[in-house]
Write a structure and sequence with these properties.
219 residues; alpha/beta; Rossmann fold; 2 domains; 6-stranded parallel beta sheet; two-stranded antiparallel ribbon
């Protein structure tokens, strides 16, 4: 590796959206489309909230939408309908979303160095595994984890099976940084595709051991 920066780590944990795949904006649009039957002001507030809570599971967000944004009594049928609509829109979005610059080259390089690579994402775990197979990314990873487990729970599974190994988390959102800090591992902040607020962006920059624009900078 040119920089050798990642050579110090045994375990590299990646967030997916906005790090490996350029899909953040498409997912924000998907949240809006899933609740498009509601008044536009409610939809707008919900989409803005989703931008600032990237990495938090859809299973949490749609419950919050019904109770805190739409201010409805929670109904399981309506909740499941929103999840289904969102999943269908996301599936189409992943089909057109691009892999981020330098992604495959970095994954290949790290694999050749016998690094253990994992994904800990707020995205749906079953959906992610299907997407990674379609995009031929699955071959690089020892494990791909996502919701309905929290990002912290995903990270716990990874670290518990790799005790006493030096680990780093590469993410693009405050939820990624908080997860890394909670588990006392280093955090690399990738900024190019983030959709969070300027304040959150600055918090991530301040809390990261390294800030990058894209994965190409780690090659």
């Amino acid at each position: 590796m040119k920089s050798g920066f990642l050579s110090q780590y045994d375990i590299i944990i990646f967030d997916c959206d906005g790090v490996l795949i350029d899909i953040n904006l498409l997912k924000c649009e998907a949240f809006g489309k899933a609740v498009a039957d509601y008044p536009s002001d409610i939809v707008g507030k919900f989409v803005e909230y989703c931008k600032n809570t990237f990495g938090v599971s859809r299973y949490v967000k749609f419950k919050e939408f019904l109770t805190e944004f739409a201010r409805e009594t929670y109904q399981e049928d309506k909740y499941n309908l929103l999840l289904t609509k969102y999943a269908n829109i996301c599936n189409r979005a992943y089909e057109i979303a691009e892999i981020t610059p330098g992604c495959k080259n970095l994954l290949l390089e790290l694999t050749n160095l016998n690094k253990s690579l994992y994904v800990a994402s707020g995205g749906d775990e079953k959906e992610l595994n299907e997407v990674f197979i379609k995009k031929n990314l699955n071959i690089y990873f020892n494990g791909i984890y996502g919701s309905p487990k929290t990002k912290s729970e995903c990270t716990s599974i990874i670290l518990n099976s790799n005790s006493d190994k030096k680990s780093v988390f590469i993410g693009d959102a405050l939820s990624d940084m908080k997860t890394a800090k909670e588990h006392k591992i280093d955090y690399i902040y990738m900024s190019k595709y983030t959709v969070q607020s300027e304040e959150q962006d600055q918090l991530c920059r301040n809390g990261a051991i390294k800030v990058i624009n894209t994965l190409e900078e780690l090659l």
